[in-house]
């Protein structure tokens, strides 16, 4: 078994024996160390330092800001194996997914470097002679980034790489369950800053600050009137609280919340491909992705064949220590997550569900205090209340349909709107699903599962998923303020809309 201490020290995390916050690994429940918890009373000081950093950083040319992010990408490349292992150790996803998470960080840095030369505005035709108009994007101010446990570092990087090239400092409040990966990222960032300075660039202090703490620290950041943007990733419950608080002070929020993602399997689907897509997206990361497949809406004519092959495959999944090669499913984050899964399965049964396979706790050698669960496949008579709720564990509910419109209505009839997909070889079904009257989600895929997005697209969802968009496309605009500018280069002062206001 891998040496936990070595993973910590490879990430520059030495003795972790001082502090009031204990950190455990979900792998076997062992204590990894103690860290110093920040308090609500620390928040004012941190935000003041961030404001000072903003004063210096916002005037720096964007391509120079991009150079810092380029160096961050290089440092992440050099740290990929070490950080990937720490992600596995602290949040329990299998090592290849830990590496994938760091690769995603590298990818967003590359994207942001290019973006630093492409923060394009617009020129606009003016109705007045001798005038021109344009639209320019300016830095917005300190950005608070509140993150969830299941993507402990990638979500930070999506926000930070964009915020930095857009001219903003960042204050990071990671999940209380994963502070160590955050501390390791701070060290990586510091190495990038040091190289940036060595090559002659000014870099303000406190461009990135970390607040390790509980939800109350996140709340204090949310309430702070000098925090221009609160980018919060987590449960819908958290997002409702954050959204309301930020709106009260007329701040801006970017919310990335819970999902309840479906796959429609049509009669023409390639069932072998469908099976593989279901497996990765329903049981990968032990069902702990916001984009995890939770609802399978399958046509009655192909249901038996698909369910038979899924039931067989579910029985052969390697559930083990996520650091061990070949493991496909690691532990749930903690006991409350396992208990939540059991509770949902009980409700599913009460609502007429039939557990086809899985659901039980799995004992993994040497990991007695880890909560490993066999992914569950549950046949449901209808899309009842338990199916409409996101349970952050590997439960896949199966519903049957006979008519395409019925399947689409079922796909859209949940409070969340993150990711969706269809498996079909019928172009009419595929295009209908992607049309304005099709899927109501932020992400819609054809012949691809709902999870595992690339960074090039804007990521996020509608309804109770919060409406925010991060990562690629023009998501950067959320991190800037828009200014409409009108310049008069004539010797007259005409008013818009032909209004006359002549004074002798
Ligand atoms: P969580 O809501 O318990 O916590 C997320 C973060 O919010 C933590 O840092 C926590 O301390 C903080 N927080 C909690 N209450 C707060 C409040 N009132 N004010 C400010 N901060 C507060 O979520 P979790 O259990 O860590 O993560 C799982 C959830 O996150 C799932 O619902 C999942 O779907 C969602 N998620 C969404 C995305 C996305 O991009 N849409 C990505 C990852 C996870």
How would you describe this protein?
The structure is a single chain. By secondary structure, the protein is α/β, with parallel strands linked by helices. Helices cover 37% and strands 20% of the residues. The chain is built from 14 helices and 23 strands. The protein has a seven-stranded mixed β-sheet, sandwiched between helices. The chain has a five-stranded parallel β-sheet with strand order 7-6-5-8-9, with helices on both faces. Helix 6 links the parallel strand 5 and strand 6. The longest helix is centred in the N-terminal third of the chain and has 21 residues. The radius of gyration is 25 Å and the shape is globular. The termini are far apart. Bound molecules: nicotinamide-adenine-dinucleotide.
Question: Mind sketching the topology for me?
Answer:
Blueprint (H helix, E strand, L loop, with lengths): L3 H7 L10 E4 L6 E5 L7 H15 L4 H17 L1 H12 L3 H21 L6 E3 L6 E9 L3 E4 L7 H12 L4 E4 L5 H20 L9 E3 L4 H9 L5 E5 L2 H13 L3 E5 L4 E5 L5 H13 L9 E7 H15 L20 H16 L3 E4 L3 E2 L9 E2 L2 E4 L15 E7 L2 H9 L3 E2 L1 E5 L3 H8 L8 E4 L11 E2 L2 E2 L6 E2 L8 E9 L16
Parallel strand pairs: 5-6, 5-8, 6-7, 8-9, 10-11, 10-18, 11-16, 15-16, 18-19
Antiparallel strand pairs: 1-2, 3-4, 4-23, 12-15, 13-14, 17-21, 20-22
Helix pairs in contact: 1-4, 3-5, 3-7, 4-5, 4-7, 5-6, 10-11
Bound molecules: nicotinamide-adenine-dinucleotide (NAD).
The site of nicotinamide-adenine-dinucleotide has 29 residues, from α8 and α9.
Bound molecules: nicotinamide-adenine-dinucleotide
Q: Give the mean pLDDT.
A: 97
Question: How would a textbook summarize the main sheet?
Answer: 7 strands, mixed
The low-confidence parts are: none
Structural class: alpha/beta
Instruction: Give the % helix.
Output: 25-40%
Number of helices: 14
Total strand segments: 23
Principal-axis shape equals globular
Spatial separation of the terminal alpha carbons: 89 Å
Indicate the radius of gyration in whole angstroms.
Answer: 25 Å
Question: What is the beta-strand fraction?
Answer: 15-25%
**Major β-sheet strand ordering:** 12-15-16-11-10-18-19
């Amino acid at each position: 078994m891998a040496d936990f201490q070595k993973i910590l020290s490879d990430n520059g995390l030495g003795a972790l024996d001082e502090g009031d916050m204990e950190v455990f690994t979900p792998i076997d429940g062992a204590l990894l160390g103690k860290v110093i918890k920040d308090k609500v009373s620390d928040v004012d000081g941190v935000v003041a330092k961030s404001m000072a950093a903003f004063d210096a950083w916002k005037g720096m040319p964007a391509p120079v800001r991009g150079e810092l992010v380029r160096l961050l990408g290089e440092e992440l490349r050099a740290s990929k194996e070490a950080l990937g292992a720490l992600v596995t150790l602290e949040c329990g996803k299998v090592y290849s997914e830990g590496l994938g998470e760091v690769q995603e960080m590298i990818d967003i840095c590359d994207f942001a470097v290019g973006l630093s030369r492409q923060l394009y505005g617009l020129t606009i035709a003016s109705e007045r002679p001798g005038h021109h108009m344009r639209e320019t994007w300016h830095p917005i101010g300190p950005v608070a980034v509140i993150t969830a446990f299941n993507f402990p570092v990638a979500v930070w990087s999506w926000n930070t790489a964009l915020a930095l090239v857009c001219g903003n400092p960042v204050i990071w409040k990671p999940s209380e369950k994963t502070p160590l990966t955050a501390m390791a990222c701070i060290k990586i960032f510091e190495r990038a800053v040091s190289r940036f300075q060595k090559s002659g660039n000014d870099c303000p202090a406190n461009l990135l600050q970390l607040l390790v703490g509980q939800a109350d620290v996140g709340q204090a950041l949310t309430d702070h009137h000098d925090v221009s943007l609160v980018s919060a990733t987590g449960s819908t419950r958290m997002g409702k609280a954050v959204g309301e608080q930020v709106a009260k002070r007329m701040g801006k929020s970017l919310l990335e919340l819970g999902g309840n993602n479906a796959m429609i399997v049509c009669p023409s689907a390639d069932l072998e491909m469908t099976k593989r897509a279901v497996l990765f997206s329903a049981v990968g990361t032990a069902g702990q992705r916001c984009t995890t497949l939770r609802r399978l809406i399958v046509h009655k004519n192909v249901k038996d064949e698909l369910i038979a092959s899924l039931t067989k495959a579910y029985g052969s999944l390697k559930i083990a220590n996520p650091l061990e090669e070949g493991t496909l499913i690691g532990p749930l984050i903690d006991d409350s997550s396992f208990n939540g899964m059991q509770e949902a399965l009980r409700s599913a049964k009460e609502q007429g569900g039939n557990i086809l396979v899985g659901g039980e706790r799995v004992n993994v050698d040497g990991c007695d205090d880890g909560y490993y669960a066999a992914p569950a496949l549950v046949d449901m008579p209808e899309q009842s209340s338990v199916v409409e709720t996101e349970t952050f564990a590997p439960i896949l509910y199966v519903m049957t349909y006979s008519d395409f419109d019925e399947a689409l209505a079922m796909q859209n009839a949940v409070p969340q709107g993150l990711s969706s997909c269809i498996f079909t070889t019928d172009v009419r079904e595929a295009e209908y699903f992607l049309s304005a009257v099709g899927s109501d989600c932020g992400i819609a895929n054809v012949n691809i599962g709902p999870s595992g997005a690339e960074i090039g697209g804007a990521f996020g969802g509608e309804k109770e998923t919060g409406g925010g968009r991060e990562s690629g496309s023009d998501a950067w605009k959320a991190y800037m303020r828009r200014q409409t500018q009108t310049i008069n280069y004539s010797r007259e002062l005409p008013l818009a809309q032909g209004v006359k206001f002549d004074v002798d």
